[in-house]
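Q: My labmate handed me this sequence with no annotations at all. I'd like to see what the chain might look like in three dimensions before we decide whether it's worth expressing. Could you predict it?
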Amino acid sequence: MSLATDLPHSEGRATSEASKTHGTGTEKPAPRRRSRQRRERLFQWLFLVPAVVYMTLFFGYPVVKNVVMSFQEYTTSTFFTGEAPWVGFTNYVTVLSSSLFSTSLINTALFTLGSIIGQFVIGLALAIFFQRKFPLNGILRSLLLLPWLLPLIVSSAVWRWILDKDSGALNRFLGDLGIIDTGIPWLTSTSLALIAVVGVNIWIGIPFNLTILYGGLQEIPDELYEAGSLDGATGWKAFRHITWPMLRPVVSVVLVLGVVYTLKVLDIILGLTNGGPANSTQTIATQSYNLSFHEFKFGEGAALGNVLVIISLVFAVLYLRASRRAVDE
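A: Here is what I predict for the chain of 329 residues:
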């Protein structure tokens, strides 16, 4: 009788001890899991450290230094004395009130607008053209990338020779065709120099627009065009109702990056005209360069560079907001 009554108690104790043992077995891996998560998080941060250090040294520091310089009287003597007195907004007032700033601002707007329109329209047309299957398609697309791969200073030197008034290849070609009798001063005329510079920059920027827009067109499903053709959406209607809405996010990226890049173009203008003749191709970027490295007024050059950065940021924000509102509607 006592043996029978003791069996349930012994089985209960064994069960409770087993449950405790089982419970502790499940609780032990928790600290291990937490330590493994800590190690993974540590490794993630270690992988990020090189990128953060690189961004800080080569992007963050120059930007901060440029902002600080714009509030100082930073000249060549500063490199020897180490003294750069604070002048507040004097540099900004000086560059914004100069007679050359309005000319540079107008030229910058015309140069950017003309370049972006030309690059985008021609790039989009070529991207749509290369969607078709035909022999040597890939080779031709590869050749169109050459202007993008060449160094800008090399491109400007070649185009300076092509557009030369007396011995330029373009004037010789037009003369042989009987179109002109005397050489056209493409780079020395105040009315033609900016147009010539815009044309060269369009030539350089077409490959970028072509590459990005062609990639965006490849992502549009063919089923949409097949369904649209059943409803009569072919040709221009297909482009308007299918291609353009689907391509709009890519277009936003292309235009924003294109404007930001074009606003700071320096090599092409310096190589072709150096801002002349009579400041007809002077932009904010070239004016900032001249102030810094020709007149050695680093504070004023930095201030003008910051103005260019602000213009780029304002355009990017406004355009992206407008694009997002259009997509929402």
